[in-house]
Amino acid sequence: MSTWVAEVRRHFPSLNLKVNGYPAAFFDGPGGTQVPEAVLEAMRSYFLEANANTHGAFLTSRRTDAMLEEARATVATFLGAHPHEIAFGANMTTLNYALSRALGRLLNPGDKILITDMDHEANRGPWLALAEKGVEVLRAPIRRETVTLDEEAFWQLLDEKPRVVAVGWASNAVGSIPDLPRLLKKAREVGAITVVDAVHYAPHYPIDVKELGCDFLLCSAYKFFGPHVGILYGREAIFRELPTYKLRPQEEAIPYRIETGTLNHEGIWGTQAAIRWIASLSGREGSLREQLRAAMEAIARHEEALFGVLWRELMGMADIRLYGPGPDARRTPTLAFTHARYTPAEVAARLAEKGLFIWDGDFYATTLVEELGLKEGGGLCRIGLAPYNTMDEVDRLLQAIREL
Ligand SMILES: Cc1ncc(COP(=O)(O)O)c(C=O)c1O
To answer: Which residue, judged by its Cα, is nearest atom 16 of ligand 1?
Structure first.
């Protein structure tokens, strides 16, 4: 095991789990990552020293206010945004529904929205729901051979001048990444409001919302070593005008206007700890943002090395069919496959007996799996890599798949 990964693993107490005498190997990152001690400690300290509701005159409430604002600033640094452009919620799906309901108030029957068939349903369902108002939902198709977004079709659908464009930055099922800067540039040219699902992208690559030029971007802290908290970035100029559904006493100002009810304070405090923990992997001085960039590069290097081995070895197995672009493409280290003789559920169950945790099914990328014709057969097997995975674990996984 390299010293880098050994040092990373030292921070994750949950990695010590055993299954039938085997050490657990967590290849389920795209469904949610493990959590480092620093995050657990932050959540514990919130409960011990600051547990209260917001805006009270007393110590714990004041601490809560200060911690929420500090967490907002940290998440803003993570995404390259301003703190008042960062809203928290239960999860990405719930925030995206709040966003679609609000944007829906600005749309008229006959207006168009563009979504994709690559995306997780969380970036489709909230927009499809607006069809009830007479909004027309356009769907950019996938390219089946490569399991990537059909960018040319997407490009052409932009000629229909959709008012909203909702697109994912990385597929949580097969790891493919579209050329989003190019697509968003054209979306802006036709005057669309752009919404990016960065849930699967955020754990693997640094994000700069200003450079990307999107209006809204969503991600989820539990996919990058944090607790179950959803995050919404809204570009100030447009977020300010967003007619959200809110309670009368709730603040009008951004970002509070979309944050309904009491938030998950301990989770939000844990989220900033997760981001600081990622930054600590850089092992160097500098601003938080510089550290984050260097740390994400180190994570990507590690994950890419493991991914290359996984891909090549699985490619050589006669019973295995791989989906999505190969290791030379810009992609996340998320590998989808099917087995010629076993269903995905059977494969996952057999591997689980040996402590190898992989996902099976459609992972809510339901339309993609249907388009690939895999729904009836139980979808896909999905292996996700995280910085705490080791080459030994990859070897164990490959051996167990060979032995199926
Ligand atoms: C790409 C993608 N988008 C959206 C979601 C939904 O996120 P949440 O569970 O925070 O609602 C997921 C969750 O798996 C995802 O992978």
So the answer is: 172
